[in-house]
Design a protein that fits this description.
Number of strands: 0
Shape: elongated
Helix content: 40-55%
Distance between the termini: 72 Å
Strand content: under 5%
Order of helices and strands: HHHHHHHHHHHHHH
Structural class: mainly alpha
Number of helices: 14
Largest sheet: none
């Protein structure tokens, strides 16, 4: 179908033709290409049409959010939305769990320190932690919340935190419900800390595997490990 043949088509016929791939957006009559209501309906059908619509519509916040909900790739969004909390929150949520790359990796510098947005991203992708503002690294409640939602995020914590026995002991003994499996990413210093290892084994006898070679032979560690193993059995 060429552009001339679309001239007589009504709104519904145009929507059907473009959604079925019979015509491209630029083949639509001008009245529809510049009709916000038509554009909105088109994006409801498939958010990917965001790439084809005029720039003024691409920069329309409501249409941007609509397109994300309808499956648009985040990278199609106008750059101006990188600093818009509402749009970026929708983008992070719509990207789902374990995305190839979280939209949070592209938020503006101002939004990297937003705890709510950062947590939503970390819930879905531990790697998103790498893009948070440094100010959040000193916020212990934020760090603990990150671990509560996605324990493997500990892999991306700064070494100074991974190497802090006081922090690790607090995390696994403080009743936060955080998986002791975070010790998989702990430093050797932590794995050679008797208090940490005993607390971990007390919660889960299988944590014995994390202990350093020295502690695996420590009488107190062996005693607790065997005691907890027999209780579990």
């Amino acid at each position: 179908m060429d552009k001339k043949m679309t001239t007589g088509l009504n709104r519904l016929e145009c929507l059907t033709a473009i959604s079925e791939g019979e015509i491209d957006f630029n083949m639509l009559p001008e009245e529809f290409r510049n009709d916000r209501a038509f554009i909105m309906r088109l994006l409801e059908i498939d958010g990917a049409f965001l790439a084809d619509i005029p720039l003024n519509f691409q920069q329309d916040k409501e249409l941007a959010i609509l397109s994300l909900h309808a499956g648009a790739d985040f990278n199609l969004l106008d750059q101006s939305f990188r600093g818009d909390f509402e749009v970026m929150l929708v983008a992070v949520k719509c990207a789902g769990f374990f995305p190839e790359r979280s939209p949070f990796a592209q938020v503006s510098l101002e939004l990297r320190g937003d705890k709510k947005l950062a947590i939503e991203a970390i819930k879905r992708d531990a790697k998103a932690f790498q893009f948070i503002d440094k100010s959040l690294l000193s916020n212990q409640s934020f760090l603990i919340q990150s671990l509560q939602y996605n324990a493997p995020v500990f892999e991306f914590f700064p070494s100074a935190i991974q190497d802090d026995p006081e922090f690790v002991l607090n995390v696994i003994s403080g009743g936060f419900g955080i998986d002791v499996g975070i010790l998989e990413w702990a430093s050797q210093k932590i794995l050679d800390n008797k208090e940490v290892i005993l607390e971990a084994i007390d919660r889960d006898h299988n944590s014995y595997r994390f202990a350093s070679k020295r502690l695996k032979l420590h009488p107190a560690v062996l005693r607790l490990k065997h005691l907890n193993s027999s209780i579990k059995e």
